[in-house]
Amino acid sequence: MEIGTENNSTDSCPECNGQIISRENTGELVCRNCGLVLGERNVDFTHSGKRAYTKQEREARDRTGAPISNLIPNMELTTVIDKKGIKNPDLKRAVKWDTRMPWAKRNLLIATTELKRISGNLNLPTHVKMEAMSVYRKAYKKKLLRGRSINAMVAAAIYYACRKKKVPRTLQEILDQTSEIPRDVRRSYRAIIKELKLKAPNTDPSALIPRYVAELNLNAEIEGLAIKIVKAFTENFPTSGKDPKGICAGAIYLAIRMKKIDLTQKEIADVISITEVTLRSRYKELKKKLHINLSDY
Question: What is the pTM of this model?
Fold first, then answer.
């Protein structure tokens, strides 16, 4: 039996001028006299704007559970059997096996825990975590984890998500948060790109400069000049195969030389985590290709 309530609006049926009622179980607006359906799939706003201060109020106003998310290891409906009062040995055995977790769910649980830990340490936003978990699930369904570590695949998925969402995080920062061998993480990343046929944009070196400038205690003038140098270089010359950190280091060192600030190459290299040889190579390349003469400054 369907339940109908009177509509609070003053509108009447356009066919017979009858009274309009709403069916709560179907979300429809129907004429009481002729049965004409005036609206369907209406949204229930009865709980909107109401706050719950106690457990009873919260339970009374909850209509659904938590939203479905890739960050929840098990998105299926589950049933928990109450162990209290069970005396039948067969039922006890059933409860025991019901609590056992299959390997597929255990794998996703381990991966989700590791992903949340690394993302929390790096302060990654939610949409990056969602993208990384989505990539990991695809890799798991493609059976790419055979012979590969779960944690290495998670780190590779996070790195891909950061590059896709243009979040300025380097591979070294992710490697610092995991105990996996860097070689395994790089192999997992290449496997994800190849087997899932993904395209990841290159990391923009200019997005990394503000953080390095802040760590070196330099002013905003140096930051702006270094960003201009990097953008001028990336817009006119190919950067594929070059480490973005090296380009940043060369641009920052070139900027402080132009502004005559006393800062050694070793101090910059230690902060950015590169070698002094790489810094000098990128510095000379930027200076030569952009035709910058330090004597003019």
Answer: 0.66
Q: SS3 of 88, please?
A: coil
CA-to-CA distance for 178 and 139, rounded, in angstroms? 19
CA distance readout (Å), 167 to 71, 85, 240: 19, 53, 18
77-88 burial by CB neighbour count: b if 16+ within 10 A, else e?
eeeeeeeeeeee
pLDDT digits (tens, 9 = 90+) for 118-152: 999 999 999 999 999 999 999 999 999 888 999 99
Residues 79, 82: Cα–Cα separation, whole Å:
10
What is the dihedral angle through the alpha carbons of 118, 124, 130, 136, rounded to the nearest 10 degrees? -40
Alpha carbon of 79 to those of 76, 88, 89, 113: distances in Å? 10, 19, 20, 22
Structural tokens at position 164:
């896709």
Joined tokens for residue 48: 């909107």
Please give the C-alpha separations between residue 281 and each of 52, 107, 141, in angstroms, as whole numbers.
62, 44, 43
Q: What is the DSSP string of 39-88?
A: E-S----TTTT----SHHHHHHH--S-SPP-TTSS--S-------TT---
Residue type (1 letter), 235: E
The residue behind tokens 């390349």 is: 285
In whole angstroms, give the CA distance from residue 98 to residue 198.
38
Enumerate domains of the chain plus CATH numbers. Answer: 103-195 (1.10.472.10), 205-296 (1.10.472.10)
